[in-house]
């Protein structure tokens, strides 16, 4: 009989299904709170803000990577999967953070980046020092080039950050990187790679981590047989026939991970970042695999009643079939913040808009925030878990005017300065109305904050009943009382209005239009904006009971 492994720290409650309907708060560690005045956020900074997370009423915190990393891609280039980058602290600091979170009954999710390592990982250094064909190279994807002398990349595969997905090394071979050249792809057909990641899952689980967010989960299994087939990430075939993404063999890896996650009581949770069409995406979320997969449909949708209703319907059916619970996301560290997206005309190409420093087309800030609040309140009424991104609870907008020389995103560099990338949603959080970095730390932060950031700070919004912070707090508190089960019943409503009931009379009604509609009967629990005269104003959500 196998014995269950015992983590070093556990939350106060033990519900094994906590993840099914959790509100998960994503922390981007570099930009959350800087405790040691180096301009970068760190683990001790996060620990100092655990009471704030508790006041937000979130069930879990997901930490984007804090592992040793040259930061070529914001930490998604990991040099050592079982340590903490010294700029962020130590393993002791990590343990202290987990203990503090657990004392407040907040679960901790860490990011696992299995598709690629950093080029400074010991394995990649060994691979470069070893000969072609060696076991050291076989952990990665090294190939001879095409052309007469191997001077051409082995295939036409392109990196997600622009340019070829192959880089040549001194002895003439090429290695594959679906992202930056500093992020060489691992070869997951190699048993040593598989065993090592399973040990990493145990390493963090033993320290008390409650779950894992799995980066690029759909990329691990690759068809590397020659001749290479072309791949286009943005035209994912529905049948798993792409050579690089969402191949059927990938599921075997996650079935093996589930066995590791189930070595703990309660089993560790996991959520896949898997860019695949809906019916194939939920395969990653099967109970025999990771349990959940991110659903990015809302994040890509316009603020539109038909679009939202269709997305909710489709995802709830898909998760019911797979046995998973659904997930919902409006913002994260990779996209333009939703308060900004919704303030732009529908269909705006945000990459092009960022290149104008946010000047054309014009941004309607009031509309953006009003819609963002309405969309968030709708999301928090849905069955399943909602992932919220640091700063959205303050109504933060995308920072559009970061001087070009300070941009850090590899996309900016790899596209020859034609795509700015994701720095605008990664600007450090404003905690106070003034100070050198609005309370983020004692010195200037690693990315500059807008001059008017103080007005959106925690200090400014705390205690203001009309603030976005107060809205998030009210919504999570009400949700805790109200959320039970995973049923949703659509209610009749006028065009442009999305209304549904959960249970015991709890209803959420969103007016996506701009004209007020009659407010349905019932006690108002929370509203995303002011209500008056028995009307539900445009671009507003209300919860009723
Ligand atoms: C997805 C992460 O969210 C993103 O930030 C990162 O650049 C890529 N994966 C590569 O790891």
Structural overview:
It is built from 15 helices and 18 strands. The longest helix has 18 residues, at 305-322. The N and C termini lie far apart (49 Å). With 545 residues, it is α/β, with parallel strands linked by helices. It is globular, with a radius of gyration of 23 Å. 52% of the residues are buried. Residues 73-74, 76, 113, 179, 215-216, 273, 333-334 line the site of 1-deoxynojirimycin. The site of 1-deoxynojirimycin has 10 residues, from loops.
| Main structural class | alpha/beta
The helix tally amounts to 15
Ligand inventory: 1-deoxynojirimycin
**Uncertain segments of ≥5 residues (pLDDT<50)?**
none
Q: Tell me, rounded to a whole number, the average pLDDT.
A: 96
Helix content: 25-40%
Distance between termini?
A: 49 Å
Q: Within the largest sheet, what's the order of strands?
A: 9-8-7-3-2-1-11-10
Number of strands: 18
What does the radius of gyration come to? 23 Å
The outline comes out as globular
Strand % is 5-15%
Sheet with the most strands, sense and barrel status: 8 strands, parallel
